[in-house]
Design brief:
CATH class: Mainly Beta
Largest sheet: 5 strands, mixed
Radius of gyration: 19 Å
Number of helices: 1
Helix content: 10-25%
Number of domains: 1
Low-confidence stretches: 15-21
Number of strands: 8
Strand order of the largest sheet: 1-8-7-4-5
CATH architecture: Sandwich
Strand content: 35-45%
Mean pLDDT: 81
Order of helices and strands: HEEEEEEEE
């Protein structure tokens, strides 16, 4: 009987935790675009819905930060990155968004 109650407790805890949204409710998603994508010329334009500076982090496929920069304009230079697939995270005014970036 104790084992059955323990199993029910564990399963109910798992179901409740699986239904929770990992993002905090007060954090909105940043809507932005990257172009050109794939990148050929060593730079990409990062355009967003909001004006102001953007904090950019670019991650490789292993999750390592390979470029971190505060962007005032829309032009981001990525010529130091080797060709491949990256994830770009943009943080602006408490908003966060993530998109895939391909560099050729």
């Amino acid at each position: 009987m104790k084992q059955l109650l323990l199993l029910l407790f564990i399963l109910s805890t798992y179901v409740v935790s699986a239904q929770q949204d990992p993002r905090s409710p007060d954090r909105a998603e940043a809507h932005f675009s990257l172009h050109p994508n794939p990148v050929k010329d060593g730079f990409v334009y990062v355009e967003s819905d909001h004006e102001g500076p953007k904090d950019i982090r670019i991650y490789d496929l292993f999750g390592k930060v390979v470029l971190e920069q505060r962007l005032i304009s829309q032009k981001l230079f990525v010529s130091t990155l080797v060709p491949g697939v990256y994830m770009v995270q943009v943080r602006q005014e408490e908003r966060i968004g993530t998109k895939k970036l391909v560099i050729r």
